[in-house]
Amino acid sequence: MKRWQKILVGMIVVLALAAAYIFWPQGVWPFVVNLDDLEAVNENYNVVIRRDELGVPHIFGQTDADAAYGLGYAHAEDDFTTIQQTMIAARGKLGVAYGIDAAPNDYMVQLLRIWDVVDAKYDTIPPDIQAIMQGYADGLNYYAARHEDEVILPEIFPLSGRDVAAGFIHRVPLFFGLDGALGDLFAETRQGTVSEKEIGDRGVEIAQSPLTNLPPTAKYGSNVIAVGPERSANGETFLAVNSHQPWEGPVAWYEAHMHSEEGWNMVGGLLPGSPTITHGHNEHLGWAFTVNSPDLIDIYVLEMNPDNPDQYLFDGEWRDLEVGEAPITVTLFGRFRWTVKQEVLWSVYGPTVRQDHGVYAIRYTGMGEIGHVEQFVRLNKATNLEEWQAAMRDGPLPMFNVGYADEAGNIFYVYNGRIPIRTEGYDWQQYLPGNTSETLWTEYLPFDELPQVLNPPSGFIQNANSSPYRTTLGEGNPDEASYSATLGIDDTMSNRSLRALTLYGGDESITEAEFTAYKYDMTYDAEADIVRMVEMILAEAPPSDPDERAAYDLLTSWDRQTNPENTGATVAMLTLYYVLEADDTHMSVSNMTGGEFTAVTVQTSFSQAVDLLLEKFGTVEVPWQEVNRLVRGDVDLGLGGSPDVLHAIYGELGEDGRFHGIAGDSYILLVTWQPDGTVSSRSIHQYGSATLDEASPHYADQAPIFAARELTPVWFSEADILSHLAQEYRPGEENGR
Asked: For 661-705, how does the pLDDT look when each residue is reduced to its tens digit (9 = 90+)?
C-alpha cells in the first residue's frame, strides 16, 4: 500500500467533517482581494436587507440576482465561518486550511472529479441561474473584503458561481452516505461480500447496511405533515416544515426571506452555501423535506488483468483504467505546506480505488449532475402544483421524502429519488461483480413512477423518515408490491410516524391550534422500542434496593410521555442512553421501532441510570427538564421532548449528568392557507439568527420561545415587515453589524 494510502487508512473519510467544521479555528493569513474592485461589484447590485425584531433577514432585490447577492451578504453576517468552510471543502483545500486530518476531503474532491463536472457543464446552466449563483458569491466576496479578520483562507477569494455549483456537487452525496461508502474502501480488509446473480429471483429484501445508513449530518430525521381543507375545521390547508438537523455546523438551518421584482417571494430555511430557500413557502405553495434512504450507491469489485495492473475485465474484454494523480496539499505548521500525489482512477462505473484487498469502483446517484440550484430556483418560484412537480421532475435532487401543500387545497407526498433501475437477481446491498454490463445501471425510475400520494380521501399526509406505504390512513397509499426490492425503498416506521398517523388520523376536524399541538406531541407509541424496554424492566420482580425500587415505581406509572415535568421520563431516557451505548444493541435513535436489545442489557442500563441520577442529583425523582437542556452561551433552559417523538430533541450526555441538546427540532415553520388562499405562517429557531456572534442580541433570543414550544409570526408582506422593522440597510451600510 502506498504511503499516502496508509495515511488515509484509519482516518474518517469525510464522515466527521460536519462535526469538525464546528471546531476549526479561523486563519490569520493576510487578505489578498482588492477592496476597491469589490466595492465596484457592490454597485452592480440593487438590494436592501431588512431585519425584523428577531434579526431575520428579509432580502428585497430588484432582480433575482440582486436578492441572491443580499442573501450571501446577510448570511455571511451571521455565519461566515461555516459558509467559508463549505466553499473550502468544495475547492478541495481543507488540508491547506486545517492540516492533514482534513486532507481526505481533498482527495475525495479529486477522486469524484467534482471540478471536472463544473468545468464541463457550468456553461449549460441557464444564464438567469448563473446570475443568481454569481450574485450569491459576490455577496460573500464583498463581505470578505469588508471583514478581512474573519477570512479563513484568502486564496479561495474571489468566489464565483462555479464555487456555488461545486458546493452542491460536493455536499449532496454526503446526505445519502457516500462518505461512509468511500471510507469502507480504505479499511484494512474488504468490508463486503460480492453478490452472485440468482437466476429467476426477483431480487432480495433490502435491509439497512453501511451503504444506505444515513450519515451523521442527517441521521436525526425530520417530520412533514400536510392537512387538506376536507380534514381541517374551517377549510384551511396546513403544512408543517419540521426538519430535524444538527443545531450547529454546515447542515444547521438558517431562516431568511427572499423577495425580488422578478417573482421570487419565498420564506424558509436554507443551509450554508445555498443561494435559495431549501424548503418553506411562497404565496402559493410550500414544501418540506425529510430524509429517506433508497439504495443510491453501489460498489463493484473489478477483475484485474494479472499481466497489466491498469486493466480490468468488462463484458469479456480488457479495458484500461483512466489513471491519474491528485496533488493534495496540507499545511503542517505555520505557513509550511506539503504536497503529496495520490493515485486517482476511473472505470466505466465511475471513481475507482486500488487497495491491497482489491480494486473497487463506486457508482452513485447524480454523478455528473450540476442543476441543483436551477431546480431550487424553479421550486422557489413555482405558483401551482403543476409547476412545482415539473421542477421536481426535471431536477437532479437525489433523495428525500417531500410533503407539499398549496393555496388551492392540494396536498401531495412523493418518495423522491433518482433511484437506479437495476438488474433483478443480484443482492444490491452487497458488493457487485464489476465485470459485466448487467451491473452497470444507466437509468433512473421516472419521477411519476415513484411512490406518491395526491389528495388522499383521508385529507392528510405525513412522513417522519418512514415507509411511503403508510403515508396516510385508508385508501391512497402506494402499493408496496409495485416496487422492486432492488430500489431499496424504506419499509420501516418511526415512532414519530406512528404518532402522526394516530393524532392527525384520529381527528377529522383539525383546528390550527390542534395542528400545532399534535406537532409538539411528546408521546411514545406502544410499539416503540423504549416502551418495550420499560416493559422488560417491569416484567422482573421489584428491586430490593430502595433507590432502584423508587425508580422502578416511577416507570410503573410512566405515561410514555417526555413532557418537561415528567419524572418517569428521566429514568426511561437515561436507561435508553445506556442501552444505546451497549455493544449488543442494534437500533436507531431516530427510528425507535424494531430495534434489537437484550433483557440483560436493559436491566444493566436501568441500574446505570439509577446510579447516575444518585451521583449527579442525589435522587431518582428528577423532572425531565432538569436533565434535558438547551445550553447556548449563558442561556440554560429545560426542555421537553426526546428522541423519535414528534417534538424531537437529541442530546449528548455531559459531565454534569445532563443531556445538552445538539439536534432535533430546530427551525420549525407551520403554514396556513385560508379557504380564500391567504397565507400566514409561524416559525421558531432553536437559537436565533446570529449563528456565531455571541455578542449579538439574536445569538439566543429565540431559545426561551423554543423551549416553551411556542412560535412567532413570520412577517411575509412588505407592510408587516416594515411594521416590525429593526434595521434596514444596503450591504456594507449596516452600521457595525
From this structure: 999 999 999 999 999 999 999 999 999 999 999 999 999 999 999
Strands 628-632 and 659-673: parallel
| Cell 452525496 sits on residue | 173
Q: At residue 203, does pLDDT exceed 50?
A: no
What would the pLDDT profile of 589-631 be if each residue is shown by its tens digit? Answer: 999 999 999 999 999 999 999 999 999 999 999 999 999 999 9
Residues 568, 648: contact at Cβ < 8 Å?
no
DSSP letter for each residue of 421-449: ---TTS-TTSBEESS-GGG----B--GGG
Q: Which 3 state secondary structure label does DSSP give 83?
A: helix
**Sheet hosting strand 317-320, strand order edge to edge:** 304-305, 308-314, 317-320
Q: Are 629 and 651 in contact (CB under 8 A)?
A: yes
Which CATH architecture does the domain made up of 529-645 adopt?
Orthogonal Bundle (1.10)
* DSSP β-ladder status, 432-433 and 297-301: parallel
How far is Cα 546 from Cα 540, in angstroms, rounded to an integer? 15
H or E element in which residue 581 lies: helix 567-581
Question: Which amino acid is it at 706?
Answer: F
At residue 10, the pLDDT reads 37
pTM recorded for the entire structure = 0.92
Q: Which three cell numbers stand for residue 532?
A: 418495550
Domain boundaries, given as residue ranges, for the chain: 222-294+374-519, 529-645
Which residues are paired to 328 by β-bridges?
340
- What does the alpha-carbon distance between residue 733 and residue 49 come to, in Å, rounded to a whole number? 10
Closest CA to 415 of 387, 452, 460: 452
Helix axes 114-121, 161-175, angle to 10 degrees: 130
CATH class of 222-294+374-519: alpha beta
Q: What is the pLDDT of residues 102-113, one digit of tens each?
A: 999 999 999 999
- How many residues are listed for the chain in this entry? 737
pLDDT per position as a tens digit, 341-380: 999 999 999 999 999 999 999 999 999 999 999 999 999 9
C-alpha cell at 342: 495520490
Measured distance CA(651)–CA(215) in Å, rounded: 17
- Cα-based torsion angle of the residue sequence 366, 488, 89, 331 in order, rounded to the nearest 10 degrees: -130
pLDDT at 197: 59
Contact between 683 and 669 (Cβ < 8 Å): yes
